Amino acid sequence: MKKRGLIVVDLQNEYLPTGKLPLSGIEAASANAAKVIADARAKGVPVFHIRHEFANNEAPVFVPGTDGVEIQPAVAPFTGEPVIVKNYINSFRETNLKQQLDANGVEEVVVVGAMSHMCVDAVVRAAADMGYPVTVLHDACATLDLEFNGVTVPAAQVHAAMMAAFAFGYGTVKSSGEYLSA
């Protein structure tokens, strides 16, 4: 069996109902992520927390030093667990995530977090392109409604489309329950 690592992407206060960018289903996704994190810790699987910040206040969200950038208490890192701060959508871009995975001997990754159609998408595709087998836990991820050309796409459809794309060509998609019972 390959050594596994858990990547927890951007489960930050900004995405909660009290944040500036609330996601559909974020509380359920965070609760499922918390169970997966607890399981990883119990089994000695390294957990890598990703935290998004926009440098130089270039966006009205994820502003450094605000409560919005803090990782949600339900999934907060334990002492010694790496927190990788990123300034871009892709968690690997200009961070030491790859080096952290390598230093911990990680050969396959499990991904949970937010947003399904952005930062989760980017890390899943990048990890797969780097050769890591990837598992995405669909009910431990969340997103929001999107709009394009006057058409609103409900969050559930955005999320389903992303999970279908991952399953089609980037990895395995499971529920957190399926993953935890395996």
TrEMBL record:
Gene Ontology MF annotations: hydrolase activity
Listed InterPro entries: Isochorismatase-like_dom, Isochorismatase-like_hydrls, Isochorismatase-like_sf
Enzyme class: hydrolase
Pfam families for the chain: Isochorismatase (PF00857)
Domain of life of the native organism: Bacteria
Keywords: Hydrolase
EC number: 3.-.-.-
Domain Isochorismatase-like: start-end pairs: 6-147
Keyword Hydrolase (UniProt): yes
Protein name according to UniProt: Cysteine hydrolase family protein
Gene source species: Comamonas resistens
Lineage: Bacteria, Pseudomonadati, Pseudomonadota, Betaproteobacteria, Burkholderiales
